[in-house]
């Protein structure tokens, strides 16, 4: 039996899909190359914007054709779109199963360890052995993931979110924020490094509130790690450099909770890369307030200045939403002006997408026309191009150490440096997963090209 997982959205979903793969392979499934040629097709959905949700609905529709040809074919869905684990045979069904009759099952990611039961509820005759529970029913993070490569890994350290930004579905989709056990995270990182992983990225919705969410405080489990459990965690993982860990990253921190201690740790710990992705969302205080972001532009600027003083080579990137409900042209211009001031080196721009169930979805009118959202989005692209290029020019003729990620169809190798900048170069040897030195010979808007050096 074959399976295929289509993942949408953030790194959290990528790590979840690695755990789904592991469960399916334990059940006896093997990976397929295309979803059209498999027995089990699972979509791991993202609800942050309407577009990825529409794609999921479209794919479920498309899968009907395959179902007609292959009677064994099953279609399932997990991720942020799912509210209740259920199948077409359940008494209480998730709404999605009512909308799509050819969708066989949906499951909440926390119920991953019950996937065997879900599959059997769909097809009683399915020959799969029961999954063993080693604490994994209660805590799906305990499942050993099937990592997508053996040199760089994402490790989730918390799930859910307590911030309730008015536009965001995550607190509803993923629930209240809680952190993974300290020892468990450390053990996962230790195992990875032992197996040869050289780069680890810690993942969480507001990763710097690790161990200090409301639920974490109530559990008292993190008290022994002091006021800043996240810093303590970084310090402990940093020690793995003795066993071969080279680079440690994290994404994404929430600006208000960025402590001096964390910044100091970034300056001090050798493995911590000098790149920080700090979502601002808007450069207008009025918009930030409507978004319930708990900081002002001034606070953010102060943080950036402190960073640049303490770690002069820090690369700072961000997320910005354009066309949020009530964002006037003047408010948007404030974002543009801030762009000139901060000069983010990379930014993910999104057009505001109203989400059902959020405060903004219910109360604030999505009153910016699609055309205006598009225009603002394109305008910000001009800024990002300009400042990405400007930052990259600073690397011209330098020698960069790069962890090689992949070889693309253009025949070039691609990887990232300490500052998370994309570098490409030519080579005849297979260098994927290796650290190499590259002399930068040409700088483009988004990436640098260079010549491989012999170490
Ligand atoms: N519309 C547009 N963008 C959104 N994001 C989150 N919710 C929405 C929404 N409703 C963006 C934010 C966040 C990133 C992960 O997705 O910029 O930082
Ligand atoms: Fe969503 Fe805000 Fe939480 Fe980020 S901090 S996941 S934008 S609610």
Would you spell out the secondary-structure blueprint of this structure?
Layout: E1 2-7, H1 11-26, E2 30-31, E3 40-45, H2 50-69, E4 74-79, E5 86-87, H3 95-99, E6 105-106, H4 115-122, E7 152-156, E8 158-159, H5 170-173, E9 178-179, H6 182-194, E10 199-203, H7 214-219, H8 229-238, E11 247-251, H9 260-268, E12 275-277, H10 285-290, H11 297-310, E13 315-322, H12 329-342, E14 346-351, H13 359-363, H14 370-393, E15 399-407, E16 413-416, E17 422-425, E18 435-443, E19 447-453
Parallel strand pairs: 1-2, 1-3, 3-4, 4-6, 7-10, 10-11, 12-13, 13-14, 17-19
Antiparallel strand pairs: 5-6, 8-9, 15-16, 15-18, 16-17, 18-19
Helix pairs in contact: 6-8, 12-14
Bound molecules: 5'-deoxyadenosine and iron/sulfur cluster.
5'-deoxyadenosine (5AD) binds next to strand 13.
Written description of the protein model:
The chain has 14 helices and 19 strands. By secondary structure, it is of the alpha/beta class. It folds into 4 domains: 2-137, Methylthiotransferase, N-terminal domain (Rossmann fold, 3-Layer(aba) Sandwich), CATH 3.40.50.12160; 147-269, Transcription Regulator spoIIAA (2-Layer Sandwich), CATH 3.30.750.210; 274-393, Transcription Regulator spoIIAA; 399-452, OB fold (Dihydrolipoamide Acetyltransferase, E2P), CATH 2.40.50. Helix 6 (182-194) runs parallel beside helix 8 (229-238) and helix 12 packs parallel to helix 14. The longest helix is centred in the last third of the chain and has 24 residues, at 370-393. It is globular and about 65 Å long. It starts with a strand and ends with a strand. The model has no long low-confidence stretch (mean pLDDT 96). Iron/sulfur cluster binds at residues 161, 163-165, 168, 170-171, 205-206, 254.
């Amino acid at each position: 039996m074959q399976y295929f997982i289509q993942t949408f959205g953030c790194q959290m979903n990528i790590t979840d899909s690695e755990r789904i793969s592991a469960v399916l392979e334990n059940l006896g499934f093997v990976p397929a190359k295309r979803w059209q040629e498999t027995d089990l097709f699972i979509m791991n959905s993202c609800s942050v914007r309407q577009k990825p949700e529409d794609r999921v609905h479209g794919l479920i529709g498309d899968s009907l054709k395959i179902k007609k040809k292959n009677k064994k074919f099953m279609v399932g869905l997990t991720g942020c779109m799912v509210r209740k684990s259920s199948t077409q045979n359940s008494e209480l069904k998730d709404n999605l199963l009512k909308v799509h009759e050819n969708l066989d099952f949906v499951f909440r990611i926390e119920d991953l360890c019950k996937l065997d039961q879900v599959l059997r509820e769909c097809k009683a005759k399915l020959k799969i052995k029961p999954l063993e529970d080693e604490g994994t029913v209660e805590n799906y993070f305990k499942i050993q993931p099937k990592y997508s490569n053996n040199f760089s890994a994402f490790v989730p350290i918390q799930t859910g979110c307590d911030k309730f930004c008015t536009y965001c579905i995550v607190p509803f989709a993923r629930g209240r924020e809680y952190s993974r056990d300290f020892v468990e995270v450390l053990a996962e990182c230790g195992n990875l490094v032992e197996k040869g992983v050289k780069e680890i990225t810690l993942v969480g919705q507001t990763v710097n509130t690790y161990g200090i969410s409301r639920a974490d405080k109530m559990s008292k489990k993190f008290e022994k790690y002091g006021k800043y459990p996240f810093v303590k965690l970084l310090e402990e993982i940093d020690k793995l450099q003795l066993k071969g860990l080279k680079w440690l990253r994290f994404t994404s921190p929430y600006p208000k909770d960025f402590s001096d201690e964390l910044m100091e740790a970034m300056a001090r710990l050798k493995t911590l890369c000098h790149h920080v992705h700090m979502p601002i969302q808007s450069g207008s205080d009025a918009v930030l307030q409507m978004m319930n972001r708990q900081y002002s532009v001034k606070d953010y600027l102060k943080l950036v200045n402190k960073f640049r003083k303490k770690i002069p080579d820090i690369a700072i990137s961000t997320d910005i939403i354009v066309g949020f409900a009530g964002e006037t042209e003047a408010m948007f211009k404030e974002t543009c002006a801030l762009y000139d001031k901060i000069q983010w080196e990379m930014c993910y721009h999104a057009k505001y997408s109203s989400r059902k169930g959020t405060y903004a979805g219910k109360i604030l009118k999505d009153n910016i026309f699609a055309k205006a959202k598009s225009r603002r989005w394109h305008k910000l692209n001009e800024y990002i191009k300009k400042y990405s290029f400007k930052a990259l020019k600073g690397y011209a003729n330098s020698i960069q150490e790069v962890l090689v990620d992949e070889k693309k169809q253009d025949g070039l190798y691609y990887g990232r440096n300490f500052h998370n900048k994309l570098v490409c170069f030519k080579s005849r040897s297979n260098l994927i997963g290796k650290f190499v030195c590259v002399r930068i010979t040409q700088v483009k808007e988004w990436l640098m090209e260079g010549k491989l050096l012999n170490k």
